[in-house]
Amino acid sequence: MTDVSSKGPGPGDDRPVLTNRQGHPIYDNQNQRTIGARGPATLENYHFLEKISHFDRERIPERVVHARGTTSYGFFEAYGSWGDEPIARYTRARLFQEAGKRTDVAVRFSTVIGGRDSSECARDPRGFAVKFYTEDGNWDLVGNDLAVFFIRDAVKFPDVIHALKPDPVTFRQDPNRIFDFMSQTPESLHMLVNLFSPRGIPAGYRHMQGFGVNTYRWVNAEGETRLVKYHWMPKQGVRSMTAADAARIQANDLGHATRDLREAIDRGEYPEWELLVQMMSDDEHPELDFDPLDDTKVWPEDVFPAKPVGRMVLDRNVSNQFAENEQISFGTGVLVDGLDFSDDKMLVGRTFSYSDTQRYRVGPNYLQLPVNQAKNAQVRTNQRDGLMTYHVDTGGENPHVNYEPSITGGLREAEYPTHDEQGPEIVGRITRKRIPRTDDYTQPGQRYLLMEEWERDDLVENLTTMLSECVRPIQERMVWHLLLAEDDLGLRVGEGLGITPDDVKHLEPLAGQDLTEEDQARLANLG
Ligand code: HEM
């Protein structure tokens, strides 16, 4: 038998030579170093030990949510105005100012609950995270494909995710655990009505909407603030799948959405989305029956029209999944001047969570990785050292000065663009209270009524199928909620489960539930 290691490069083989990471050429990549052809092996076998021990560390912890995803690159192009109205009137963020101005972007689409190799056909929200590499530093808009979320306070996030993830004993996703939590969390109803409709399984990443979900602020040059919500609309149109479509695709391909996106970009069919913004004055809006800081609500578009601010095109695939998709790190704290947070209690909690998990998952210097760097802005910090420091981002005149203030060089603070603080003054008592105006039923009911008939049928079937695996008390409480949202929805799901309004009328409201007068009237009429 020929010993391939002894072959060496043949004449005319001008491929580059394999080395180790010290730059040493590898003469034999087929055989370990041993004493005699039959061993034993020696311990100073540097190439073998480096190769195996690096392999042993090839995986980093996967994202605790949104583990399966895919990243692509492209650009965002601003429109600069709404008709005659310059966008500068509302935000001073430089990326939005001039018509035609382009900003590089990286976008990661994902599913939420499954692991890195799970099916992309799952009924699950889809992540829609956009990193804008602006001249003022990075801006991350970390959204989902559905406009609302399950909960409105970040303190409940680990609970909702635990309920949706596999059972810790059996490692199976379990409808009883999911609906146990949801039935005790009526704010989840609006999300459930979306998730169990055909929208719960997008046909692919090119055919889904994106929503910032949480409420943010825009700030103009005068320091005036407004509340905003962001929406992405696909030029390719919105397409979804039924559970039967999904089962068919999943039987052959767990990664159809990633494949579809990559192949479309390879073919030069660049997907495109328009970014729209809804806006309202920065106050509590007592005239509304919901709170503008509640992410379980949408803002009615007839009152707060969604206005286009630019378009995004994806035209390049990543060249390495690990470096550019696994290690890319988004966060809701990553904002540029002219864009700000609101007091949305989910947003505040998210903002801590993202960079916290990335320091753990990727490492403390995750922002030095090429895909995460603010590549179109100057980065100059006094942060030093730590695991995997890639370079020193000094920039001061004196590299000895890694502190501030100093009179011997080093970095100085920037001037405030206008005001040091912006937005309304807040006076209050420290407390732990849910926001008023929770109204958990009106919008899910309206959403149901807005659906086309086939979508309603699909929603009823999906809910009934999953709830039929749950124990009776959970089924009854879910039917109770659905009846409060919309009679027809509650009656139809109830019928599928063999539960009538009479069967659930004895149920009391949940502890602390904030029912509107309309809810109470519905409750009185159950049965
Ligand atoms: C990913 C936390 C709510 C969208 C993540 C990750 C964490 C997290 C820890 C993993 C990040 C990583 O490893 O890099 C939270 C918390 C939430 C919350 C604590 C609520 C308090 C939401 C909501 C949305 C959302 C409401 C949608 C608007 C995303 C997306 C990703 C993600 C798109 C994936 C980002 C990527 O592709 O790398 N979230 N999340 N999350 N989250 Fe959230």
UniProtKB/TrEMBL annotation:
Region listing for Disordered, in residue ranges: 1-33
SMART domains recorded: Catalase
Q: Which CDD domains match?
A: catalase_clade_1 (cd08154)
Keywords assigned:
Heme, Hydrogen peroxide, Iron, Metal-binding, Oxidoreductase, Peroxidase
Q: What is this protein called?
A: Catalase
Catalytic activity annotated for this protein? 2 H2O2 = O2 + 2 H2O
Provenance organism: Microbispora corallina
Cofactors, names only: heme
